[in-house]
Every structure is written in C-alpha cells, then in structure tokens.
Amino acid sequence: MGYIMELRKLVGSRPLIMAGSCVLVFNEQGHLLLQRRTDSLDWGTLGGSLEPGESLEEAAARELYEEAGLRAGAYKLITVFSGQDMYYKYPHGDEVYNVMAVYEATEIQGEPMVMDDEGLELRYFDLTMPIPEINPFTEYVLKKAGYIN
Fold it and tell me: Which one, out of 17, 71, 78, 136, has a CA that is 20 to 30 A from the CA of 10?
C-alpha cells in the first residue's frame, strides 16, 4: 500500500476515500478462500487499494498474487460498493470510506500460500456454514453480494 502509506504521512489517521478491489476465489467444492489478517486476526477477503495508474482489475490481480501466490485467467466483476456502509476503522486507528470492486477470479493457477505480512493463514470456507471470526466488513460484502445470508 505504498500510495496510501504516503497519504497517511500527510493526513494521519483521519478518513480517506480508498478505491480498491477484493478478489473471491472458489475451489472445486465452491468454498471461498479467505485469509486470517495480521492486523485484526479475523478472516477476510483477499484484496487491497489501488496504486496510481492501476485499474481495479489490475489491483485485483496484483493483490491475488501478493496475498496468496495465485494467478487467475479471468476476473468477473460482481459488483461495486461505496457509501456510508463502506466505512471501516482499522485496529490501529486509520479510517477509510471504501469504494470496492468485487471480482470473482476463475481459471486459478497455483496453490494458495501466504506471500506477505498482511496474512497469517489462508483457508477455504464453506459458505453454507457460519464462518468463525469473520471480519465484519467481509461479512457485509459477502451478504450484500449475495454469497451468504
């Protein structure tokens, strides 16, 4: 998050509008890949914010590789979220209003493995079962996109 980190040096932790992408990866059983986050210790989607000059789909591809070591042959735009409901306060105090493009990645290449310091673990979850310790923001996105009830 080089660009956002540079902005944070100027504005501190006050709310920023942050554009980004999250990537949904499903295995053959239809289970969703989530990562246990280092900052909040809960389970969240793969993804992150745009870097200057990057498209939403390019950000999705970059984040998929950086966070899980995976590549995808195709990305399907599911929906875009914005507004008051997309407010998030990170455990360390930074505040954001997200503009989030949700992509489903297909034709996955590679095996999931933690590649950066943002994740502790990767695991597939059956969306017909409750996900323990799910990040509230991730739960909101999955509900609004129609993946869970």
Answer: 136
**Cβ(9)–Cβ(16) below 8 Å:** no
What is the C-alpha to C-alpha distance for residues 40 and 120, in angstroms, rounded to an integer? Answer: 11
Does the pTM surpass 0.85? The reply is yes
Separation CA 92–CA 83 (nearest Å):
22
* DSSP label of 128: T
As a whole number, the mean pLDDT across the chain is: 95
The three-class DSSP label of residue 43 is strand
Q: Interior CA angle at 105 toward 122 and 25, to 5°?
A: 25
Q: How far apart are CA 147 and CA 77, in angstroms?
A: 14
Q: Counting Cβ atoms within 10 Å, is residue 120 exposed (0-12), middle (13-18) or buried (19+)?
A: exposed
pLDDT at 90: 87
How many whole angstroms separate alpha carbon 55 and alpha carbon 89?
24
